[in-house]
């Protein structure tokens, strides 16, 4: 077993680039959609307006959007024939980040609104009565709801790192450039190389386990 | 209490910064790591002032699954410092990529479609690169008896498969292999349909796996089959016929139509057609499979 692992790392050096790229793509898209999603989510939770119900209904639909549909959309946008074709982004890691961001944003936004709606109004009320301005209120809400928000972000990250359809389409699964863990597993399974596929599968599981452990610890420390 | 909170906040910020810095470092680490494979990188740099550039090669699954490109491209990179990014799809899909200008060079195997592509103004010129041949593979017990009744004739073989309703896995993805398969069905005057005819819609490697799992027949290029042979419980049943010739061609996507990477694309095509590229193609597979997987035939 140890021999196998050693052989593995010497022969399959590029596996590391696959793992790092997976993490870079999924972490960046989670980071971008968290920033946008949390700001929008908190704003919508605090305010009542006319279109709110419609927006939430649309968001709920978008939350269950199939990744391949996002893939198709981003592909058409970024193709040299498409409106953003001149940027030449198709088949680059950036294209993958864009599609994963689109995929994760509705999840983070939707879950933020549904998980903090009740608490954050109380927090806002307290903040206002203590004379806080809008910025302070926002920061206090972030702080007070941090556990819920952490779970929300983890859910978003989970979606991003486990996704295969969109990154396969817009990334093209290019060796050394846009090959990530999920597309690697799909490719190696197709070639009958189950050892490699299983190994990466375990790494993928380990990453989810690690993320959830950290979250659990954070929750426990409260 | 307050101090504690501030500490937590500081810790959180530090952690986030660390993660961010790490991902940045990983980003910038990636490129030099790619350059490393063949020995002394310093010498390489002294030899070639050429800046590192890249291009996209859209190709068939057979050239990637057989390992040919993994063998060729590092050598090309070493020489020219051009990274060739390979998008491996079926020939049909690769030609579509070319039509949309999403690839710079195409390496495919369906001559008629390739010539149409060039005629339609999407490509500059088509060159022969190499060939190998198609074979029909099937389960070891050979339920349709192809090995005895049709060892060299794909048309007879297809008729037998249809008559006995033996499972046949089709690529079903408009790839070069699928195009060839459809031509055989047409020659045999059979419209393949029914439970026995499985249209998989996936790459060659995956279809071979499926054929092995389902105990079915399939049409494959010899290179992909040989490179996966040990993992498959299949045997060659029909081979060696003029109709089973499999020519690969290379085409540059028309630079007048799309802003493709003309210089890199030109360099790659010249290299693969040059003596050096052609010799490397002839070399590939001899050591591992005792026979070359592709035969170079550039003019």
Structural commentary:
The complex is a heterodimer of chains A (222) and B (299). Chain A is mainly alpha-helical and 222 residues long. Chain A has helices at residues 2-11, 14-46, 52-63, 67-78, 93-129, 134-144, 146-162, 165-171, 181-191, 194-221. Chain B is an alpha/beta fold and 299 residues long. Chain B folds into two domains: 41-131 and 247-296, 3-Layer(aba) Sandwich (D-Maltodextrin-Binding Protein, domain 2); 133-244, D-Maltodextrin-Binding Protein, domain 2, CATH 3.40.190.10. Chain B is built from 14 helices and ten strands. In chain B, strands 1, 2, 3, 4, 5, 6, 7, 8, 9 and 10 form a ten-stranded mixed sheet that branches. The longest helix of chain B is centred in the first third of the chain and has 34 residues, at 2-35. Mean pLDDT of chain B is 85; it is low at 22-49. The chains are: A mainly alpha (222), B alpha/beta (299). Chains A and B meet through helix 2 and helix 9 of A and helix 1, strand 2 and helix 10 of B.
Quick synopsis:
The complex is a heterodimer of chains A (222) and B (299). By secondary structure, chain A is mainly alpha-helical.
Multimerization state: heterodimer
Biggest beta-sheet profile of chain A: none
Summed over residues and divided by their number, the pLDDT of chain B gives a mean of 85
Number of strand segments of chain A: 0
Order of helices and strands of chain A: HHHHHHHHHH
Please state roughly what percent of the residues of chain B sit in beta strands, choosing from under 5%, 5-15%, 15-25%, 25-35%, 35-45% or over 45%. 15-25%
Rounded to the nearest angstrom, the radius of gyration of chain B is 24 Å
Point out poorly predicted stretches of chain B. 22-49
